[in-house]
Amino acid sequence: MAEFSWIARSPLEKALVVGGYGARGTTAGVSLTEIRNFDLIQVMARRGKAAELAKAAETRFGVTAPNAPNAVRVPDATLIWSGPDQFLVLSKGGIHAMEKLSQAFSQSASLSDQSHARALISVSGGKARSMLAKLSSLDLHPAAFPAGTAAATAVDHTSINLWRGSDRPDGQAVFNLLVFATFAESLWHTMLDAAAEYSVEISHSEALA
Amino acid sequence: MRIVCPFCGERELGEFTYLGDAKSARPAAGASEDEVFDYVYMRDNVAGPMSEYWYHGGGCRAWLKVARNTLTHEISSVEPAAGVGAKQAAR
User: How many CB atoms neighbour CB B53 within 10 A?
Assistant: First the structure.
């Protein structure tokens, strides 16, 4: 009998090679970090239940869930706006996994587990914005896209959820990007091409930024 | 051309998909064959202001009703299509 293994694997397992890429002899202008093993739940209000969902979210997370393109950080999760009356819950370690949230939102929202359906890529570094500017039509300047701003947009014809998280300790902006698992490899190579001239530092991590 | 999505803000055309005339309404049950034929097949080739449906598939995935001048591409209004977002449906 064939042996099966149901251990989750990263969609970037093959494409991601830890280390440097692109231009040499300079400090890396772009850091690309894939975040692995996260819980991601899509929460969408049922018809006419938006107010109820907002209340349930506030009870569950202690903050108002985003109702505009923003990402809201709570100690153990990030709530990312993904469209009218819907948001994503990004967390780790099962604290806000499907079985927990389905109870909290059973009356007001439809939930869909996206944990293994998306890849999460964190982009930072002095040239991160220059690299993203090649791919995205959004204005990511701090004045237009401050920390905590989110967007549902398309990069290289691929739908992504993009949000700016907390800055790195050195003050550099961090852009987080959720992409469909099957498009992750394609987008990864596109980003490497775009970032090569700035020199890239590639890694993966288990820690949510 | 850019469309100002009421949810996402100003976005490039590539994020949107065009459906067509937002004016045509499904005839009531029991309508004549001519009315149904009109609804299914007949379209006006508008030169000027037109109300049309656009889908923000590269963004928030909402359907939008856009008032656009087909001669100048000037967009005078963008609003969520009926039923978009549970919030709108509840109003």
Answer: 16
Domain count, chain B: 1
**Structure-token match 């709570």, residue found:** A74
CATH number for the domain harbouring residue B72: 3.30.2270.10
Of A46, A50, A83, the CB nearest to B62: A83
Q: How far apart are the C-alpha atoms of A72 and A11, rounded to whole Å?
A: 26
What domains are there in chain A, each with its CATH number? Answer: 19-36+117-205 (3.30.1360.120), 39-113 (3.30.70.1520)
Residue B29 distance to chain A (closest CA, Å): 25
Interface probe with A: pick from B7, B63, B88, most Cβ of A within 10 Å: B7
User: Which residue range is the domain that position B66 belongs to?
Assistant: 2-90
ipTM over 0.85: yes
Task: Grade residue A209 by pLDDT with cuts at 50, 70 and 90.
Answer: low
- CA-nearest residue of chain B to A153? B59
Confidence at B85, pLDDT banded by 50, 70, 90: low
- The CA distance from A50 to A46, in Å, is 7
**Beta-carbon count within 10 A of B8 CB:** 24
pLDDT in tens, A27-77: 999 999 999 999 999 999 998 899 999 999 999 999 999 999 999 999 999
CB-based contact A84 B90, cutoff 8 Å: no
Nearest to A83 among B7, B11, B89 (CB): B7
